[in-house]
């Protein structure tokens, strides 16, 4: 198992990326890690922080794609960037999976145009595992396709269902369509058309889901266009942070509230872990021919390690082969 890693992508690169990669090597028995980026910067970071590199190769790249770059920079403007080279290596069979915390738009473009789509996939989508009140669910698309045709949404449901079944072990996943009401008559023309098509799509479609029901875990897969999905994702993360900060502030008001906290500390810690986005590390590009994982831009070492874990899951379950077989049967 050879994992290609963009060492320069993300807010905390390269330090947290390298630390996370080394945690992944230990935990998941990875044969080889390739760190792509400025070799001198990577080596200085390793030396300054006394990091012991294991099963690791450093591949020098002269350019870096940052968040201000146009998405297609990965193709022409910065061909020797750590992201561009990593995606090219993946496409050429020089690695088994690619992980980056860098520019989401560039990763989407690169995964689609360099690594290429799986035959039969209409549009690859960003899929993110999210927490709910009882168990995780998959939200897709989280930003790759701001505008979607109804047939794209239908296929997102299929890809998401396959992911939850094969990667997360959910039997007969419940697939729902994000909408502003549960009724069939609600939504835009595209959403209404997708609803009718999803009723006969062959997976466990349970209808529309309103935003307020998503955190309750009423569905295992929530399907949306990339614009709506990204709004749900960012709002979800923001509200979770506000609530956790509010709980913390309430217990730190005075000596009595601090004493009360000791009685509920265990439960609060469990809730914090349950709604911690770092548990899953990032999002996957569903529909491309090889595993591409987008780690959170602000990923720390634990978060990045868990992003690598998603790549490992893909490889251990031969998930892309399963998608190809499913699409070939349609």
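^ Assign residues to that structure.
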């Amino acid at each position: 198992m050879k994992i290609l890693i963009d060492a320069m992508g993300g807010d905390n690169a390269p330090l947290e990326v390298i630390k996370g990669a080394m945690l992944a090597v230990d935990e998941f028995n990875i044969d080889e890690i390739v760190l792509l980026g400025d070799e001198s910067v990577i080596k200085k970071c390793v030396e300054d922080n006394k990091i012991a590199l294991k099963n690791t190769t450093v591949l020098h790249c002269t350019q870096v794609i940052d968040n201000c770059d146009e998405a297609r920079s990965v193709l022409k403007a910065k061909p020797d960037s750590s992201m561009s080279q990593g995606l090219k290596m993946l496409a050429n069979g020089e690695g088994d999976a690619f992980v980056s915390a860098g520019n989401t738009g560039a990763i989407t473009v690169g995964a689609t145009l360099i690594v290429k789509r799986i035959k039969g996939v209409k549009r690859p989508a960003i899929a993110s595992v999210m927490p709910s009140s009882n168990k995780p669910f998959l939200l897709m698309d989280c930003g790759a396709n701001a505008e979607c045709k109804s047939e794209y949404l239908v296929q997102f449901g299929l890809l998401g269902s396959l992911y939850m079944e094969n990667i997360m072990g959910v039997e007969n996943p419940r697939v729902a369509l994000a909408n502003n009401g549960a009724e069939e008559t609600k939504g835009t023309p595209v959403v209404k058309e997708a609803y009718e098509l999803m009723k006969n799509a062959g997976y466990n479609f349970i209808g529309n889901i309103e935003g307020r029901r998503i955190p309750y875990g009423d569905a295992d897969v929530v399907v949306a266009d990339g614009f709506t999905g990204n709004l749900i994702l960012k709002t979800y993360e923001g509200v979770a942070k506000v609530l956790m900060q509010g709980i913390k502030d309430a217990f730190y008001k005075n000596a009595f509230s601090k004493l009360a906290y000791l009685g509920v500390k265990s439960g609060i810690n469990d809730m914090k872990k349950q709604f911690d986005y770092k548990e899953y590390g990032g999002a996957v590009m569903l529909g491309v021919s090889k595993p591409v994982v987008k780690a959170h831009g602000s990923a720390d070492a634990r978060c990045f390690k868990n992003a690598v874990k998603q790549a490992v899951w893909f490889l251990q379950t031969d998930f892309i082969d399963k998608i190809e077989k499913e699409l070939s049967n349609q």
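The chain is about 45% helix and 15% strand.
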